[in-house]
Structure formats: structure tokens, C-alpha cells
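User: C-alpha cells in, sequence out, please.
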């Protein structure tokens, strides 16, 4: 079994930070998805892009900025 991705922002742990990760965070914030239950604890750690202990809109904004910068 491959190790979990520890890349900040890589919520679905596919080795890339992209719109799919953003969608998962949005679903988590809206209460439609618990990241640690749907994927694993590392997913929630990766979702906290700003490393402030919360998964929130600031993480989304930061990840979008990174994705747009390419």
C-alpha cells in the first residue's frame, strides 16, 4: 500500500493539488463530508493548508491561489 500524500492541499492524496481537492474542502466546510471519515486523518491535515488548526475558507483561498499560479 502506497504511503499517504503529505502534500499541503492534496486532500484526495493523488499527488497533485487541484480543483478536486478544493471541491472536497468545500463539501467539508458545508457539512456534507467529514474528510477524516471519508478519506483518512491525513486528508484533513492536508486540507489545513494554512496550518492554523482549522479547515476553512482561508485554506480554499490559499489553495486556489497556488493552483492559479501553477
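Assistant: Sequence out:
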Amino acid at each position: 500500500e502506497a504511503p499517504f500524500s503529505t502534500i499541503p492541499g492534496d486532500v484526495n492524496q493523488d499527488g497533485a493539488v487541484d480543483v478536486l481537492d478544493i471541491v472536497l474542502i468545500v463539501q467539508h466546510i458545508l457539512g456534507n463530508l467529514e474528510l477524516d471519515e471519508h478519506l483518512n486523518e491525513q486528508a484533513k491535515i492536508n486540507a489545513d493548508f494554512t496550518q492554523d488548526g482549522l479547515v476553512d475558507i482561508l485554506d480554499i483561498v490559499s489553495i486556489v491561489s497556488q493552483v492559479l499560479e501553477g
